[in-house]
Amino acid sequence: MQKHDAAKAVFSKVPEDSMREIYSQWSGVGQTTPLPAEDENSIREHLCIRAYLEAHEAFTDWFSHSSSAPQKPAPAPEAKFTERVANEMREKEYQSSLSAWSGRLDVLTEDVKERIYNVLLFVDGGWMIDNRQDSEEDSERSHQMAALRSLCLPRLSFLLLSVLQNSSRHQEVFSKEELRRFLQKLRESSLALLDRGLDPLGYELQP
């Protein structure tokens, strides 16, 4: 959480019109060709980071709200008429609060789904992948971006799974056909690992 907060703090210092200013300055000097690859990739990286931070913030909002469901009131003894009336009033208030909470949760669920999918299905090649390459590839940059993908994309996938499961949207996790293909791929990978003398998860077999 602290790393995400630090990243948001740094990101917030970048002027909102930075990308527009880059394009404006480039066209202002009479350039009709596309931006240099380095500049274009930097803009794409900026969009990738923004999409990820927005997805993480949306999940934080969803998790905070999903963890604060209204508590069902414990009924008081119903020996007296006034106590029965009080029980009914508390129950009505609870049902009203629960309805409002559920409605808000549905809105937040749709929002976090959309924002996580924006990262997982990032346009034009994928998240944290440069569209253009210079004549000489920056191996350090490529390594860092690959490390970010291997760290962030699986994490977001698990967050999305948590959202769908905890919102009782199990049917949205996988369709039947997707689940069949997924299990088939797992089977193929496990068999390949067994052929190499490893266990089905890729670890060395213990004697």
UniProtKB/TrEMBL annotation:
It comes from the Eukaryota. GO terms for cellular component: nuclear membrane; nuclear pore outer ring. GO terms for molecular function: structural constituent of nuclear pore. InterPro entries: Nup84/Nup107. It is found in: Nucleus, Nuclear pore complex; Nucleus membrane. The keyword Transport applies. Keywords: Membrane, mRNA transport, Nuclear pore complex, Nucleus, Protein transport, Translocation, Transport. GO terms for biological process: mRNA export from nucleus; post-transcriptional tethering of RNA polymerase II gene DNA at nuclear periphery; protein import into nucleus. Belongs to the nucleoporin Nup84/Nup107 family. Part of the nuclear pore complex (NPC). PANTHER family: NUCLEAR PORE COMPLEX PROTEIN NUP107, NUP107-RELATED. Functions as a component of the nuclear pore complex (NPC). This is Nuclear pore complex protein. It comes from Pogonophryne albipinna.
